[in-house]
Design brief:
two-stranded antiparallel ribbon, 8 helices, about 200 residues, mainly alpha, single chain, Arc Repressor Mutant, subunit A
Length: about 200
């Protein structure tokens, strides 16, 4: 019986998906993730993250060692393959992650909840910087998608989703910036204290 099979993560899912294609060693997995642009959905910035996840998947009996490859020009490399339990877990995780709205805690909404600690003009500056970065990411990802040419949409659905979400976020951020600049959305320390007092009074 496999242990810890429910400790899913984007990186674990991507690694299992790669091994569903064919057995391979960790270095090749990491390089393929980056080459396919999947490092935008699975964090492989830290080299050890791949090896740590592989170790966890092996301990859970989801993958196993197929062979140890030795090349005189390179260090010894361990080639892994998917187990039957790993293949079934890959399918189960995919179903769950497709159908479940995960309870996540991203930083941006937390910052929006605390935005009144800054003056409106400072918020405009920070959101303008965010909008510029979002636009740069959108342009970069759009260019990458255009470069793959006629690749079937099945293989770019994740990129399409991320682009759609970033475009929606950019539109929302630009709308808030416009409201701040026009004065439609504004605040002051005195006004915040008044609102807090009213809320405290209604709660009592």
């Amino acid at each position: 019986m496999a242990n810890n099979t429910d400790r899913r993560s984007p990186l674990a899912l991507v690694l299992l998906s790669l091994l569903a294609e064919e057995p391979m060693h960790p270095y090749r997995m990491r390089e393929m993730i980056k080459a396919r642009g999947k490092d935008k959905i699975a964090n492989v910035a830290a080299r050890n993250s791949v090896y740590q996840t592989i170790d966890r998947l092996q301990r859970a009996s989801l993958i196993t060692v197929r062979e140890t490859a030795q090349d005189e020009r390179r260090p010894e490399r361990t080639v892994y393959e998917l187990t039957d339990a790993g293949r079934e877990t890959l399918r189960r995780w995919t179903r769950t992650m497709l159908s479940t709205v995960a309870r996540e805690f991203p930083e941006f909404p937390a910052a929006l909840a605390s935005l009144m600690v800054l003056p409106p003009e400072d918020v405009v500056e920070q959101l303008t910087t965010r909008a510029e970065k979002l636009q740069a990411e959108i342009d970069e990802r759009s260019a990458e998608l255009a470069a793959v040419g006629d690749l079937p949409r099945l293989f770019t659905l994740d990129d399409d989703y991320v682009l759609t979400m970033k475009r929606a976020e950019l539109r929302w951020v630009e709308q808030v910036i416009a409201q701040l600049r026009s004065g439609e959305l504004t605040w002051s320390e005195e006004w915040i204290k008044e609102v807090a007092a009213r809320m405290e009074g209604s709660a009592g």
